[in-house]
User: What shape does this take?
Amino acid sequence: MSAVTAPRSEKKPRPGGTLYRGYTGMWSWVLHRITGVAIFFFLLVHILDTALVRVSPEAYNAIMSSYKTPLMGLGEIALVGAIVFHALNGLRIILVDFWSKGVKYQRAMFWVVLGLWVVLMAGFLPRQIINIVLEVNGQ
Amino acid sequence: MSTVETPRSPYARTKPSGTNWEKWGWMYMRASGVVLVVLIFGHLFVNMVAGEGVRGIDFAFVAGKWASPFWQVWDLLMLWLALIHGANGMRTIINDYSSSPALGKVLRFAVFASAAVLIVLGTLVIFTFDPCPSVSPEQFDLLPSFCPPQ
Assistant: This one.
């Protein structure tokens, strides 16, 4: 008696049933959570540092000078990157939920999100990198 | 001997009564999200890209913005929408991962308490802010240029 083996598909089988299991659907969900938590904790700090305008101009400028150091400059790149991803993927989620073809095109929309992320970061990075270089040079 | 229920008896779905808060939370995340994309992208462009970027931000910069009701309303909306959006997102994550109901309760309380405190603090800061506070003479040049001499 020989065992019957299922014909092997050339393509790797994909888990079906839900767009949130495996591949882009799942990884965009993971990234959305991680960036969301990071942004929430920054928001708490950011409101506290901005509240220092109510203490004195000197106190506010002192906290702002720590935001202008090269290390924080790199942190701001990560922060803006997280915000831009969370924003664009959030719009993708809305389209998945409300647009009749959203589920069909969710994978394509993920790549659109990444493409727009690259474009928007390219708009932000020159200014920020110039600022970091100026700070490193002590200018 | 106990009797077994008729296997194919239909499942009686009970219609939940009262406000479906989970649904409205879900709607809020999407509605506030769309508005926040506009508000935060505008915030990031004006503060981090236009002009000098982050190096241009100081007391005079903030005072210049908040001298106008436009930016006061902009930042007030961002404050409320973002904190509630963030707190509700944290609630979802806590519900997913907290290992015990008691821990979940404590964490949810911590998240919503900090959000409430910061909403009150931020709102007070925006509405009680004085762009030209009285300062010592050596701090006068930290004020925006439109402030009258003291």
